[in-house]
Amino acid sequence: MNRAFSALYAGATCAVATWTALAAWGCAADVSVPDSVVVQRDVEYGKAGERVLTLDIVQPKQPSDTPRPVIVFIHGGAWRAGNKSQGVGLLTRFAATGNYFCVSVGYRLSGEATWPAQIHDCKAAIRFLKANAKKYNIDPEKIGVWGISAGGHLVSLLGTTADVKDLEGDCGWPEQSSRVACVVNFCGPTDFMAIGKLLKGDAVAAVSALLGGPIDQKADAAKQASPVTHVSKDDAPILIVHGTADNVVPFSQAEVFYQALKKAGVDATLVRIEGGGHGIGGPEVQRRVLNFFEKHLRGQKTEVSEEPINALAPAAKPKS
Description:
By secondary structure, the chain is of the alpha/beta class. It has a single domain, classed as Rossmann fold, CATH 3.40.50.1820. The chain contains ten helices and nine strands. Helix 5 links the parallel strand 5 and strand 6. Helix 3 crosses helix 5. The longest helix is centred in the last third of the chain and has 16 residues. The relative contact order is 0.14.
């Protein structure tokens, strides 16, 4: 693992309990930013009517002689909570290596606008980056996306719907493609019709709020919003990381998505967190995510193992 990346990650893991109380991997919202990194907040990337859409940029302070690849983070929170600040600390660790230009995207939550507003916003952010590639000295063909929970759902859609015109929206930069180079999905739902059959309570309520009504009454929207619906052979490479004991988004969501991707011939990797719930962290997970981005965004000869990872053991209680 890159030494700067490894050092910045030391001890930085935290549990994720629910979609509505998502604490980003690495407890990122209040992470201090090193002098080698510059953060630019609330950059306008588009508009939904009169509603301004913004993102945060996290980039190395040192200019690059060549265009940098991009990592885009999309936050979780059941599509009804959370904000783009959750991604800043996570992305700081990548920007600090000097190799990546990073962005954390804000999008309309379900209390403001229902489906498909969320994916319209995310796609507009990708198109904004491509339209401004020269300004930011970034490689428009090397944009990777990473999301947790609801964000994992949205990045999975970015990876599978590059040619789905109905999901592009009209929030800006229509001349650009929303296609991405690779995807990292942490515990994101991928098949909403199955979610409705498997779960009850808050998880189903969150999906219903996203779709604008009960899942069984919004079958067309549920199908359109499910990444598994759109799988095709030209999808971006996808890394799926999911806990086998996740009681918020069942592990079967990862399995079904992975199997569909492999059947279609997509470069897909599934990492099982044995005994893990709806929260993922630890140095081995970090290493595999870094290797995945290094491989697909920087062309490095690295491998991303599918060997299962044991969930982090709880911290030992201090002796009295």
